[in-house]
Amino acid sequence: MKTRALYNADCPVCNSEMCHYDAYAKARDLPIEIVDLNKTDLSEWGVDEDRATRLLHVMHEGKIHVGLAAFLVLWDQMPRYRFMARIARIPGLYQILDWGYEHIVARIIYERHLRRKAKGLVNSVHE
């Protein structure tokens, strides 16, 4: 069963990181699929466009993981990144990283996405 990561290809930061993971996974024949939220049926993920653009979503073994938890599941599938998942799971550190990703990093990325969208530089998923 593949691990699937849903990301916003219209976001330069997200696109760069996820293309890197995609190339890494393909070069090692890992069962990982990177899915552009702008080119898929979001109902399969149980999210709308707004929620999907706010945080990373990863589907693994029939369960959807969101935010830092999604990164950890994805990193666990890639040998080079497993150490990052182990470090991020350290009690106390996990809570700090989770909060920082959701309330600082992802928020900044999301707000930039909204500005690009307001300027007409990106389209809604299903316009």
What does this structure look like?
The protein has helices at residues 12-27, 49-54, 68-76, 82-88, 93-118, and strands spanning 3-7, 32-36, 57-60, 63-66. The protein is of the alpha+beta class and 127 residues long. It has one domain (3-118). It has a 4-stranded mixed β-sheet. β1, α1 and β2 (32-36) form a beta-alpha-beta unit. α3 packs antiparallel against α4 (82-88). It is globular, with a radius of gyration of 14 Å.
Quick structural summary:
Helix content is 50%, strand content 14%. It has 127 residues and is of the alpha+beta class.
What order do the helices and strands follow?
EHEHEEHHH
Total of helices: 5
Globally, the shape reads: globular
Please indicate the count of domains.
1
Helix content: 40-55%
Radius of gyration (CA) equals 14 Å
- Low-confidence blocks of residues: none
Mean pLDDT across all amino acids: 93
Number of strands: 4
Give the strand order, joined by hyphens, for the main sheet. 2-1-3-4
Distance between the termini: 32 Å
Task: Name the assembly state.
Answer: single chain
Largest sheet composition:
4 strands, mixed
* Structural category: alpha+beta
What is the beta-strand fraction? 5-15%
Question: What labels describe this entry?
Answer:
127 residues, globular, alpha+beta
Layout of helices and strands, plus pairs?
Elements: E1 3-7, H1 12-27, E2 32-36, H2 49-54, E3 57-60, E4 63-66, H3 68-76, H4 82-88, H5 93-118
Parallel strand pairs: 1-2
Antiparallel strand pairs: 1-3, 3-4
Helix pairs in contact: 3-4
